[in-house]
Amino acid sequence: MQLDFFPSRTLTLYLAKMFALRIIAMLAVLVLVLMSLDLLSTSGKILGAPGNGQAQLWTYVTLRVPQVIARFLPYSVLLATIISLVTLNQNSEVVAMKAAGLSAHQVLAPLLLTAAVVSLVSFAFNERVVTRSTATLKAWEANDFGPVPQDSGIKSNVYLVDGDNILAASSIAGTGAATQMNAVTWYKRDKGGILSEQIRASKAVYAAPGWELQDATRFDVETADTTTVDRIVVAPGLTPEQIELDSIDADAQSFWKLSQSIEDFEAAGRRTAELRGKWWHKISGPLSAFLMPLLGAVAAFGLARSGQLFVRAIIGMGLGFAYFVVDNAALAMGNFGGYPPLLAAWAPFFLFLLIGETVLIRTEE
User: Fold this and answer.
1) Whole-angstrom Cα distance, residue 68 to residue 32?
2) Exposed, middle or buried by CB within 10 Å (0-12, 13-18, 19+), for 98?
3) Where does the chain cross the membrane (predicted)?
4) Which of 219, 221, 326, 332 could be a cystine partner for 348, CB 3.0 to 4.6 Å?
5) Which CATH number is associated with domain 164-236?
6) Per residue in 145-184, pLDDT tens?
């Protein structure tokens, strides 16, 4: 295996430019198709809110597109890899490069370099754009697509535990004693964990201690009676400081801000395995784009020159999609405590890096 990975500047620029253009084209197609499907399922809810119209649909698109780009950019790199390598194979350009003395690694080097740049751009894009749009979009969805809230720390779909009881809120805004919850539900459970009472209210404010629910509706599970109460205080053990810790959304925080949140959790003696796994995945996730040319290389070089180009393309695509399946499964196992956070985030990456490199060396080098 030769170690001079870029013996020709002209060839490097040719392959890198071709690959980059195909990545952009595939990403544009995926974003257009997926956003169209997303709007079909969401536009009814958006337009159902009072005062919403076409402007709010475009607002939703601007908030949703960064999430779609971040999620499907690695898929775009995979599809661009398959298309580029199949085209090179069909036009006998791979044969010409091999006849000129280039190894398989030298042929792939420009693609890997381009994919590495894409990974860096993806990480920066996630940090600067995706986290902010995610926080704003979740807060807007929690507000039933009402007036778009400013990016001011609004948290959505929060579940808080007070002993055996649970306090759920669709959104939380404010800090300290000024914290306010919206669309609140209080689940009171007995010592056996069985639900005994449920109270719903439109909002809750801090009562020092506890949280005051106004104009609430109480449902008694044992008697199946429903009553209305003007004022009731629940969750005396929950403080605003605890809520700020419990309501951390790793997807809506940048890498550095999440690092501080993890330190705060550890200082409070809280479990940080799930947050730590997502923290590591903020690095390993964008790096998945770097793997795609290696996993899709079978489309260019083949297995023992079988001549079945379509089958080899399917194999390359299957390897790429298998990585995403294993990556999501490992991250889920890490969230449940089955894997250590570091292993959950990085094991799929290095596993498929070794698989791709092994296939490439055994078949071409």
Assistant:
1) 10
2) middle
3) 20-40, 68-87, 107-125, 283-303, 309-326, 338-361
4) 326
5) 2.60.450.10
6) 877 555 455 666 676 777 777 777 777 776 666 777 878 8
